[in-house]
Structures are given as C-alpha cells and as structure tokens.
Amino acid sequence: MTQFTIDADPNAEPFHEAVGGVLTSRVPSGPIPGRTLAQYLLSIPG
Asked: Rounded to two decimals, what is the model's pTM?
C-alpha cells in the first residue's frame, strides 16, 4: 500500500474525507496569514 500526505484547501476537505483521507493535522498556509490547511493521509491499495 502506498501512502502520502497532502495539504488540502479548506474547500476541498469534504472531498478528501469522502475518498478515505484521514485528517492528521493542520498547518499554517504560507501565503495567507492566519489561514490553516488540513493535512490528510491518503492510502492507495496495491
């Protein structure tokens, strides 16, 4: 199984959860002060 972590736009969080992503943390958005991005762990079988 291959796993990877992505930083998700807040508007895309429902999509990443729907495809099985697991929220692992939140990180600051570099270009936008005060905004955080969700980090999701995604797994690909195979």
From this structure: 0.83
Does residue 38 contact residue 28 with C-beta atoms inside 8 Å?
no
Six-digit token string for 13 = 């969080």
Q: What is the pLDDT of residues 13-45, one digit of tens each?
A: 999 999 999 999 999 998 899 999 999 999 998
Q: What pLDDT is recorded for position 1?
A: 85
Alpha-carbon gap, residue 20 to 6, rounded angstroms: 13
Domain boundaries, given as residue ranges, for the chain: 2-44
Instruction: List C-alpha distances in Å: 25 to 5, 19, 38, 39, 41.
Output: 10, 17, 6, 5, 9
